Write the structure tokens for this entry.
Amino acid sequence: MTESSALAGNECPVELRGITKIYPGNPRRVNDRVDLSLHKGEILCLAGENGAGKTTLMKILYGVEVPTEGEILVRGKPVKIASPMTANRLGIGMVFQHFMLFPELTVAQNVVMGLEPVKFGIFYDKAKAEAAVNAIIEAHHFSIEADKPVHDLTLGQMQQVEILKLLYRNVEIIILDEPTAVLIEQEIVSLFKTLKALVLAGKSIILITHKLREIKQISDRVAVMRRGELVDIRNTNEIDEYDISRMMIGSDFTETFRQKKEKAEGALGVLTAKPVLTFDHVTVKRRGQKRLLLDNISFAVKAGEILGFAGVGGNGLGVLEAVLGGFLPVTSGKIYHREKDISRFDASALRREGLAYVPADRLRVGSAPNATVNENIILNRRHEFSPGGFLNFKAVRSFSADLIRRFDIAGEGDQSTVTLSGGNIQKMILAREIDQFRDYIVFSEPAWGLDIAASAYVYGEIEKFRDRGAAVILISTNLDEILSLADRIIIFYRGTIAAELNNSDSIPNIKEEIGVFMMGLKKPAGVTK
């Protein structure tokens, strides 16, 4: 515990009481009656797997989201926080995982935006702005200069600019969402020094993270969320990393959820089948970033199996999905579809090659929001409904109506897709991709937002693909989903393959074993650093 938090006692600048968040069209509670308080002068880590509700809860505190139910107290008084501006006035600020900066502007211009000092009542006072920002930089020993353009900064320095924006606005409560996700080790050390200095200066900090070593290193208390609920709040010095891991992942997994899988061996039995898709030492690097997004990844998925990929945010699953979908080129290494090199194929070429793909981002990646349901359902196969070059609208409507019925989509074929609920957009994309499957299929978070019946239907379809000899790649942050479906499981940690396991009943405590690798508590054989 830091000195300042030890002196602070139980004074709570912020209290959340009974916070519940439910999105229209989605019966799942993203936050479920959460009670949480922040002590003055402490660093509180809000931990949990992807989808646990951490970021949504903090967006509610910052005024980006409105709670369905519940109450927020700031310094003991009930408040309504309808916008980030309101939050700032109450002394609350938030730094998001994706920085909100204008690269072409200077540090000072980014920091003072919206509260610019002026001279003669109208003109931007550049000298006064830079002096004010430099004063904060010097007071907190930041490694940046007020007059430097943001596009010349490292990611760690950009993060300092985001924190500067809050300090310039005199916030007392700072929320940071996965602040170390894109930082290299030296930048993480620098950030933690900054956070500890801020606490000693009287600030209170909430850190959203899932990284166990960092939780132990930086926090006074840790609050763990799972499936929208607050599981527990503990003093960090009273628990170890394995305790936190168990709370995050849960111990309520039962064999009734995990189904026995009998593979169809047939002519393309998985033991003798050749790989359908192969990654051969694939590396992905982003320009200007030292840390590799994917680091020397090799695997193969065969016909007649489901290969599951597990991990937590910021460790490479999203990058893997982008590469598989043709949206992100590889820096080095090769990708083969059967024996054909598809390393440089874009999304359209991969579709022609045989890819079916259900993305995690249904609205921006998986659909054309302003098109109709009918148009989205035939998005990749218009030629099949255009004999002689003219679209057969009757055939399109009949085909679309059949999929709408089979997948229980609450909408009409001529309805604009953007007017559907998130869950129904998801069903529409699943219907399209499952029906058009040719060779191999990638599912990313396939049951996100679906109710129990719809989820069971999707899982059944995924298993049918496997049983009829398909190669299925399943990317999911839901370990129960992975364990229920996958034949083999590859675990990602910091852009590398931390482990590969057969999904077998013979592995004791397999869920905890996967969690240990996901959190970086256990290294692959031969890796020491």
About this structure: The chain has 17 helices and 22 strands. Residues 1-9, 252-269 have pLDDT under 50 and may be disordered.
